Structures are given as C-alpha cells and as structure tokens.
Amino acid sequence: MTTKAPAISNTTEYLKILKRFEDIDAHISQLWKGNLTQNMSIVSAQEILDEVQAVYFDVMVHVDGNVNRERQRTFTKSVLTVADNIANFILSKMTSGSTVVVLKTHSLVLNLEKNTVQNLSHGTLMVGPHSGFEIPSAEHIFPHLSSNVTLNRVVYRFGPELHHISNVRDQFATDILTLSFKNESGQENMVQNAAQDIGIWLGNSQTPLNGTYVKGQYVGNDATTHYLLEVTAFKPLHAIQIVLATSSPVFENTTAYISTKSPGNFSGHSGFQFSSEVSFNGSVASILLPEGEITKAGIYYVTFDLVYSHGVEFRVSTTQHRCRYSIDNANSWQDGGCRVSPKSNVNSTLCLCNHLTTFTST
User: Which entry of 196, 244, 263, 300 is 20 to 30 Å from 123 by CA?
Assistant: First the structure.
C-alpha cells in the first residue's frame, strides 16, 4: 500500500516549506557578514542553490490542484527572491571584467557577469540545452549610458517545473528565463522599446502535432504546382509553424497564402486572407502562421508552391508557439512587445522582444 504525499494545500506542509525558504535567506544573510573570497563565495552560493533545488523538488512532489492562488504566488516569489539574493551576493564579490560565474542545479541556472557597457558580452548565450538569449550589443540596448559604466548582467533559468508551482492550471511548455541588467548598487536598468529585438530561445518539451496533412495539389495559371495543406489550430493566439522536410532542396522566395475557408477557386490567391513568407534551410522549408492571425481554434488552409526540377516529396510536422512575459514575478503573463520568430523549431520557441523581463512560452 502506497502512502500519498501530503499536499502543499495542507497548511502544515505549506508552513514547513516557507520556513525552509526563510532558513535559506538567513543563510545568505550570514554569508554577507563573512569575509569570503570570490571563490569561497561561489562554493557557498552553490551549496545554497542546492538547498533551493531540494525545496523545489519537495514542492513539486507535494503540490496538487487544490493550492490556492495566493500560495502559488508565495512559492514563486520565494524562489525568485532567493535566486536574486544569491545573485546579488555573488555580484558583490565580482570585479568588472572577471570571468562569468555560472551556478546550476537540475532545475535552476544562474549566469552572472560584471563588465562595462562597452565590453559586456553579447551574441548568443545558452543557459540550457535549448534555452538562451541572442543579445545585441549592450551599447545598443543602453545608448544613454557611458561606455565605461559598469553593469551586471543577470540571467536566471528555471525549469518548467516552476510553472507547476506558480500556477498548476497553466500548461506551459518551456523553461522560464529572466534577463536583467543591474547597476553597481543592484538596481535594475530597465530595457523597454529597444532599438534592436532581443532573441529569447525557450527550450520546450512539446512534441510535433499531427493536425496537418496534405489536402491536395493543383496547377495554377502560372503553370506552377501549388500544394494545399489543411491545418488544425488547437490553441487560439498561438503561432503555427509548419515544417516541410523535402526530399530535395527547394528554391527560396516562396510565399504561403492562408485562408480560414476551403478555397473553391484555385485560379489565384484572392480568396486567401493573409500570407507568410516561407523560410528555407537546405531541404527544410518552414511556414509560420503568425499568432495575430490565429484568433481561434479550427481549420486553416495553407497553399504554397515549391519550385523544383524532378518532383519533390515532403513530410509535414506542425508545432504551435506563443511567447509570454511577466513583469510581476511570474504571477500573470502577457504577450505585448514579443512575437514568434520563424526560426523557432520543435526544440525551441524563439521569441523576438523589444524589452527585458521574465519570459516563457505556451
């Protein structure tokens, strides 16, 4: 006979978890009082992060669908607060230009860097197998700051388990990533309406959907063979990505046309409501139906042409992506200022955003 783990909805268990978070915060406070070197600080911080992981795991074991909203928020805030306190402690020990510090457990990763605006590293920063950021030069993000100003870059990666803790009713498919820049005093330098998009790669656990199949093909007035796909949209406001793995390379500059009704006249594209460019990578073609056009679940029809010499066969797979961000410690999620990139794939959703905060995908 198996014994059911006590649910976090149980007040006793809930208070025990909060007490463990309080003890971890007290441990961090003690570190501030010590005269530790940077290396000693990193070792101590890693030990604390391991403690957080242990609490994280116990919450996952005990959480159930009866947890009220306020307790969900408390758990999330506790995890984020402890991570922030650990980051601030380590950053206080770092000097500008020192080696990037990475602390990690199975579900948590902290990536910390201190440097001048001019020298702060940019490019692609991966903090998980399929999660990370494509960061423009910090000088483009902060054009108003002098190049010799020191900034701290703070990156958190939380495994998708945190979604289960923060809101068991939400079905998130990816890690949670937080990217922020702080000044020497630990205050955040806000990034809004950036001149260049910041790319956020969110590793996901979803598998390709099977709601897409080839409905038919026809020869248009231009003597080009057009293919018609019928696509099932399971979730509204999600971008649909159709990936075509072809038997031979295809040429670029192909446009896909999308309709919510089965086209009765194949002589042109006048009956289609919106279009999308087809992107190519060797023998793989990708069509992205933007999230702004997928306003409801249902059937969508996609037509496109492939230019080829000796015929082509292709396999179709479909995934659905939606970029979300939070400005209140993951208590609520929004869409504005972000869009799904056609570079997304079955392993990752690539979000292009003009601001920095906490990101995820559904």
Answer: 244
